[in-house]
Automatic annotation (TrEMBL):
Pfam families: AAA_28 (PF13521). It comes from the Bacteria. Signal peptide: none annotated. Residues 5-166 form the NadR/Ttd14 AAA domain. InterPro entries: NadR/Ttd14_AAA_dom, P-loop_NTPase. It comes from Thiorhodococcus fuscus. This is AAA family ATPase.
């Protein structure tokens, strides 16, 4: 079985665009839990959104990310995740003071190599689902970088290049690593 590959990092850093390109190339991808949760909560009129109840949002992100891992278990090819379980646990740690061990236990569900999208002011855009500014996104990025490294993952920064070059970088790294 191939590793599960996380694309994490700064909000608005081009992760979702990269996942679209990887999917276009025929790879298994898993959409960001947070975006899916927000869309569903807005549709239902729920409060588990970052601007209303951050703790409920992050707990739901943990649940969705765990279900995503189960959904791709046993796939012979690598699966690429737009964020995941560790992102939600890191958010709970940073914003709600919930220890990582409480959210993750000893779980290290992804492959050793993680890709982080650094802050990229030129492409950052707030929208209906991403209401925070670049400074909050950069703080989130710094915490994710530190968290993945503390958990023993090898972190590689995605270059600030076009999406095709980013996809090539990721695919070359997982074939060689």
């Amino acid at each position: 079985m191939q590793p599960q590959v996380v694309i994490s990092g700064c909000s608005g850093g081009g992760k979702s665009t990269l996942l679209v390109e990887l999917q276009r190339r025929g790879h298994v991808t898993v959409a960001e839990p947070g975006r899916r949760i927000i869309a569903e909560q807005i549709r239902q009129g729920g409060d588990a959104v970052p601007w209303a109840d951050m703790a409920a949002f992050l707990r739901e992100a943990l649940r969705v990310a765990a279900a995503d891992l189960e959904d791709v278990a046993g796939i012979a090819a690598p699966a690429f995740f737009d964020r995941g379980l560790i992102d939600a646990a890191a958010g709970l740690q940073r914003l709600c003071r919930v220890p990582l061990s409480q959210s993750l236990g000893e779980s290290r569900p992804y492959g050793r190599l993680v890709f982080l999208a650094p802050p990229w002011p030129e492409i950052y855009r707030a929208d209906e689902e991403r209401r925070h500014g670049l400074s909050e996104a950069a703080a989130e990025y710094a915490h994710l970088d530190a968290t993945y490294r503390a958990l023993g993952y090898e972190v590689r920064l995605l270059p600030r290049t076009g999406v095709a070059e980013r996809a090539d970088c990721v695919l070359e790294a997982i074939q060689c690593g």
